[in-house]
Design a protein that fits this description.
Layout: H1 3-17, E1 27-30, E2 40-42, H2 50-60, E3 68-71, E4 75-79, H3 81-84, E5 95-99, H4 104-115, E6 119-124, H5 127-141, E7 146-150, H6 156-170, E8 175-178, H7 193-224, E9 230-235, H8 248-268, E10 273-280, H9 287-290, H10 296-302, H11 312-320, H12 331-343, E11 351-354
Parallel strand pairs: 2-3, 5-6, 5-8, 6-7, 8-9, 9-10, 10-11
Antiparallel strand pairs: 1-4, 3-4
Bound molecules: nicotinamide-adenine-dinucleotide.
Length: 362
């Protein structure tokens, strides 16, 4: 096993073994610590399996008050207790990863999670976006509370590197918000194959690649602390529940992701991981719809999609009128569903609509 793979097992295991009762908290990995004095020094067996490594760590750590653990040949793991003192909130001291967090829903979800006490890795292909958002969150809520990481959900090596960086920075994770998504709306009669592939790769395969990489980290934590559950939440869409006219690539990718959600849920519950999807209605205030140059409102106005519409406000009104509750979805609406799914200990494999009544389940 290479060093990176070993750290990705030892980090989450130590996070569980050295935690208090309330939560697993935060643990940081240091490759070459300036000061290698530690509470505990451990040697691991060579060429061991995950279960053997976890067993060896469990036997070595009888004193769960160890704050610094040096694993010979690997490095130092240090609890960041200064960062977890007296934190409150609905996800206090949990670690969360949000994909597609540079803007839109992802950015606002990350902000809410930090405000509610979590440590959050904001990840995106837009690296400057997540870096500056994470810096702003640390400025507002305290150092160490957020980091920005490059992560392209369509690239398995990028996902693996980001997962490793999360372990090095926080020790593991409790919540994965699989939010990154793209839309290329067009008629099935004319849509280029590349556009279909692009949407499918990000929205469908990207979700698979992220779960494949992050679930084993959560599973190690569950081996150590079977009473503590983790959550994977995919930000799906109302278009994952009903078809979307001239938008088949998007709707197909979202329907497919609900199949993944149900299947992941069946498999991963043995690792203490709940897997659910949230299906929001249209987020009219987000950049996808409201960007003044390229947003869908401007595009639909230019394309005369709403007969008689004179301006962007007319287009928006036409879409709001399709919602029984008369308005678009907001991140606050989505966060109520996120916290419900995290706090609900007896549900997995669901696709939860948040659509103001636009989609009603049978
Ligand atoms: N906007 C809506 O009306 C709406 C409604 C329902 C569901 N959703 C879903 O919510 C999620 C977020 O949508 P949004 O409106 O905030 O989108 P957005 O376009 O505003 O933001 C998407 C983010 O994902 C990032 N991204 C794109 N490709 C990526 C990749 N390969 N790897 C990592 N990051 C990538 C982008 O850089 C961007 O920061 C999507 O899954 C979308 O399908 C959106």
């Amino acid at each position: 096993m290479d060093k990176r793979a070993l750290i990705d097992i030892v980090g989450p295991a130590l996070r569980g073994l050295t935690a208090g009762d309330r939560s697993l908290g935060v643990l940081r990995y240091e490759d070459s610590p300036a000061d290698d004095s530690c509470d505990l020094r451990i040697a691991l067996p060579a060429e061991a399996s995950t279960a053997q490594i976890v067993d060896a760590l469990r036997r070595s750590i009888s004193d769960s008050k160890a704050r610094t653990v040096l694993v010979e040949g690997l490095g130092l793991f240090r609890r960041l207790d200064h960062a977890t003192d007296q934190r409150t909130g609905r996800v206090a001291d949990k670690v969360a990863v949000v994909t597609g967090a540079a803007q839109g829903f992802g950015l606002e979800i990350a902000h809410s999670l930090v405000a509610q006490g979590a440590f959050v890795a904001l990840t995106d292909v837009n690296i400057e976006g997540v870096d500056s958002a994470a810096n702003a969150l640390c400025g507002q809520f305290g150092p160490d509370r957020a980091i920005g990481l490059p992560l392209d959900v369509t690239d398995s090596s990028s996902v693996a590197q980001a997962a490793h960086d999360v372990v090095c920075n926080f020790g593991g994770l409790d919540i994965l918000i699989s939010n990154a998504g793209v839309l290329e709306a067009q008629s099935v009669k004319t849509q280029p194959e590349e556009d279909f592939d692009f949407v499918t790769r990000v929205n469908y395969k990207g979700y698979f690649l992220c779960v494949r990489q992050f679930a084993p980290i959560m599973a190690v934590q569950h081996l150590i602390r079977p009473g503590i559950y983790s959550d994977i939440i995919q930000i799906n869409s109302k278009s994952g529940l009903v078809g979307s006219n001239r938008n088949a690539a998007y709707a197909g990718s979202k329907f497919g992701a609900i199949g993944l959600t149900q299947s992941f849920a069946l498999e991963l519950i043995e690792d203490g991981i709940k897997v659910n999807a949230i299906c929001p209605g249209n987020f009219f205030d987000g950049p996808l719809w409201s960007d003044p140059d390229n947003g869908l409102f401007v595009q639909y106005l230019r394309a005369d999609k709403i007969p008689g519409a004179q301006n962007v406000q007319d287009v928006r009104k036409a879409y709001e009128d399709r919602v029984p509750m008369g308005r678009g979805c907001t991140t606050a609406d989505v966060m109520k569903a996120v916290y419900y799914l995290i706090e609900q200990e007896y549900e997995t494999g669901q696709a939860l609509p948040v659509t103001g009544g636009q989609v009603m389940l049978g």
